[in-house]
Amino acid sequence: MTLERYRDWVARGRAHQAGGRPIDALLCYRRALREAEDGADARFHLGEIAWQLGNPADAMAQWRAAVQAAPRHLASLRALADACADTGEFDAALDAVDRVLALQPADARARALSTLLRAGRGEAPVEALEIALGVQATWPLTLLGHVVERIGGPRSGASPQILQRLLDLALASPVTQANEDALRVIARTLATAGEREPALVCADRYAQACRASHRNSMPLLWPQRTAGPALRAGWLRLAGDPRAAALQAGLAGSFGSGQCGQCDWSMLELGALPASPEAAARAIAALDLDVLIDAGGVAHASGPLLALRPARRVWAIDRADVPAVAALADRVFLVETSEREKTGTDP
């Protein structure tokens, strides 16, 4: 009788889920688990709902519990493989997809996902990767970024066709707060390889995603002072960037002595700020800066922070090999990169 009630509650949950009522479905699946605690189907659907509602950690916990209770539960294994690939847990994703293939060796999508994961390790031949990319139109964005980072360097030897296919898939993939940084990684990799135009496309898509996910309608903190003769500026940079001082001096000199001669500079390293974009933005906002200058571009994950507008104005430094996140800045300064800088031979 308990098993029959479990099946009945699962059926009710699926009906609610199909009708676009996820909360009603969630309650039904939880009620089903009271009848059969190890019910893999109920846990699989709970994972689906959690994923749809933007809670990947809960979703993956449900799918892992389902697989633990029923090791041959293919739906949960497939979902777990995709979720791990989209959240950067590539080893766990490969383990899950290998288990799918052990049960269904002919599963074309699982084989393609396995190829992409192995390509991220440098273990898949180019021909296999080309076939895998043609299996379907969407792949986890974080996985695509990982593959581009692996094979998209200037000495990788990857064909332009494969890189373009990866780029097209990445630009067509759904973007969330959990995977938006993959677009920045792709932009950085392409720029390093000398592919500036597609890098700018990805950088712009990254900026749009950050604005959609992080931008507030209200200021983080209200200004603490009125404008004065001294410009209060913050320099957001990568730790150990040898060009930061030269760029700062060049930028200051471009304004003339009237303004930057009285400039009060704050040097900010992204790695030294709180990990949370909101906390980092509030820490910068407390400095009450007139302008925050982003000197790292796509080389560091500054998009969520810049989208929160932690200063009155945001400026960005754009270099040929390190594009700026221009859509999040009020003003962009283009800096030419010398051949010596590109090859790392500057003193």
The percentage of residues in β strands lies in 5-15%
- Please bin the fraction of helical residues: 55-70%
What's the Cα radius of gyration?
24 Å
Q: Kindly state the number of beta strands.
A: 5
The parts where pLDDT drops under 50 for at least 5 residues are 256-260, 339-347
What is the topology, as strand order, of the major beta sheet?
A: 2-1-3-4-5
Structural class computed from helices and strand pairing: alpha/beta
| Terminal CA distance | 79 Å
Describe the structure.
- By secondary structure, the protein is of the alpha/beta class.
- 55% of the residues lie in helices and 8% in strands.
- It has helices at 2-18, 22-35, 40-52, 56-69, 74-86, 90-103, 108-119, 126-133, 141-151, 160-172, 181-192, 196-214, 244-253, 257-260, 277-285, 303-307, 339-342; strands spanning 232-237, 264-269, 291-294, 313-319, 331-335.
- It has a 5-stranded parallel sheet, covered by helices on one side.
- The relative contact order is 0.07.
- Mean pLDDT is 86; it is low at 256-260 and 339-347.
